[in-house]
Amino acid sequence: MSVECSATSLRTAGHPAAHGTTAAPGLWARFRSRATDAMERRRARRLIVEMEDRMLRDIGLARGDVERAIRYGREDARPVLPWWRM
After folding, report:
1. How far apart are CA 86 and CA 39, in angstroms?
2. What is the domain count for the chain?
3. Residue 77 — pLDDT band, cuts 50, 70, 90?
4. Which of 1, 6, 9, 29 has its CA 20 to 30 A from that of 18?
5. Which of 62, 56, 69, 83 is nearest to 11 (CA)?
6. Full-prediction pTM beyond 0.90?
7. Where is the composition biased (Low complexity) (predicted)?
C-alpha cells in the first residue's frame, strides 16, 4: 500500500469544499460533487481498513474513530503529541 495514496485520500475525504466548488452550483455540479465525495470516502475507508492497528495508532486513530475521521476530518481531535510528551 502506498503511503502517498493514503495521505491524499485522507487529506481530501473530510473536506468537500476543497474540490473547487462554485458560488452557486447547479444541480449537475452538486450531484457530481457529492458523488466524488462519496467515492473518496469509500476509497479512504478501504485504505484505512487495510491498515494494521499499529499504523492507525501512529497517525492518531483508533478503529472506532475511523468513520468520524473520514467524514469530518480530524480538526476537532486533540493534537497528536510525540511519545516523549505523553
Report:
1. 36
2. 1
3. low
4. 1
5. 69
6. no
7. 12-22
CA–CA dist 72, 54 (Å, integer) = 22
pLDDT, one tens digit per residue, over 7-43 is 555 555 555 555 555 566 789 999 999 999 999 999 9
19 residue type, one letter: H
The CA distance from 61 to 33, in Å, is 27
Instruction: Decide: 56 and 62 in contact? Cβ < 8 Å.
Output: yes
The whole-angstrom separation of Cα 67 and Cα 19 is 20
**What is the dihedral sign for C-alpha 66, 67, 73, 75?**
negative
Cell numbers given for 71: 467524514
Cβ–Cβ under 8 Å, residues 5 and 43: no
C-alpha cell at 34: 457529492
pLDDT at position 65 is: 84
The answer to whether 40 and 12 are in contact (CB under 8 A) is yes
